[in-house]
Specification:
Blueprint (H helix, E strand, L loop, with lengths): L11 E12 L6 E12 L3 E5 L6 H8 L7 E6 L2 E2 L5 H11 E5 L10 H11 L6 H10 L15 H13 L5 E5 L7 H18 L3 E4 L3 H4 L4 E6 L2 E7 L3 H9 L2
Parallel strand pairs: 3-8, 3-9, 6-7, 7-8
Antiparallel strand pairs: 1-2, 1-4, 4-5, 9-10
Helix pairs in contact: 3-5, 5-6
The protein binds adenosine-5'-diphosphate (ADP).
Length: about 250
């Protein structure tokens, strides 16, 4: 038997097929997603770009199992998300998905380390100490683990949130405007760490952003307009992303 080397196979971490999402009825009906088909490949950093209201957050929420959809399908790995009941959806999000939000969402009374390990603690799992070290090291958080969020800068807090998303080795990390609350320097740092997590740890990352500079850190940028997938760029510069945005 001839074996295909694993490295040559492109594995899809998550995919939407013909995905539609409508809000409201009658005159109030809004088509937020209109038959979107897109794949997110393993070990790739994909940015979802588009003007405000184009459906970026809705797409991310539907693919991440945070929101229901009207028609089409979504899968994470081999799991059809649309077939899961609430309990299984919660399990899927907990065990297979990492989240980074614009607002950091750290618990103020817990230390950085406690925040990083909290989702695993809740799931009754222990982080692999070597992996935890590696993630903390990569994010430059070694000297900050005993600090509470209020004792950390915005950039450091978001790095803690990135560590929290990575530590359980999720199949995919979804980041929703992760630099929205950061100045440009701290933002660039966090984007660099997200990219390092892809390059060095083999993580799969999908990021929603409206910022061409942020999208310029991604391997691939997909563009939404009026709920439709209209284009994609591979390894673009921020300037190329900006040019494409202007024509949407
Ligand atoms: P983006 O993230 O690109 O700004 P969204 O996904 O938030 O876009 O929104 C896409 C469309 O769906 C917009 O027209 C928005 O007004 C609409 N929308 C989003 N959430 C709701 C909701 N809960 N109820 C009604 N309409 C919504």
């Amino acid at each position: 038997m001839v074996r295909t080397p694993r490295s040559s196979a492109v594995t899809v971490a998550a995919a939407a097929t013909g995905l539609s999402k409508e809000y409201g009825r009658g005159d109030a009906r809004v088509v937020a997603l209109d038959r979107v088909s897109v794949s997110f490949r393993e070990g790739e950093f994909t940015a979802i770009m588009g003007p405000s209201g184009s459906g970026k957050s809705t797409l991310m929420h539907c693919v991440a199992g945070l929101d229901s959809f009207s028609s089409g399908s979504v899968r994470i790995g081999d799991t059809e998300v649309g077939t899961l009941d609430d309990r299984r959806l919660t399990q899927l999000r907990r065990d297979r998905i990492g989240f980074v939000f614009q607002a950091f969402n750290l618990l103020p009374t817990m230390t950085a380390l406690e925040n990083i390990t909290l989702p695993m603690t809740i799931a009754g799992r222990r982080p692999d100490p070597a992996w935890l070290d590696r993630v903390v090291d990569m994010l430059g958080l070694g000297g900050r683990l005993g600090h509470r969020p209020s004792e950390l800068s915005g950039g450091q807090q978001q790095r803690v949130a990135v560590a929290r998303a990575l530590v359980a080795r999720p199949a995919i990390v979804f980041a929703d405007e992760p630099t929205g609350n950061l100045d440009s320097r701290a933002g660039a740092e966090v984007l660099g760490f997200l990219r390092d997590s892809v390059r060095e740890l083999g993580q799969t990352v999908v990021m929603v952003t409206h910022d061409p500079v942020a999208a310029g850190h991604a391997d691939r940028v997909v563009f939404l307009a009026d709920g439709r997938l209209v284009d994609e760029l591979v390894r673009p510069t921020a300037g190329q992303v900006l040019d494409r945005m202007k024509s949407l």
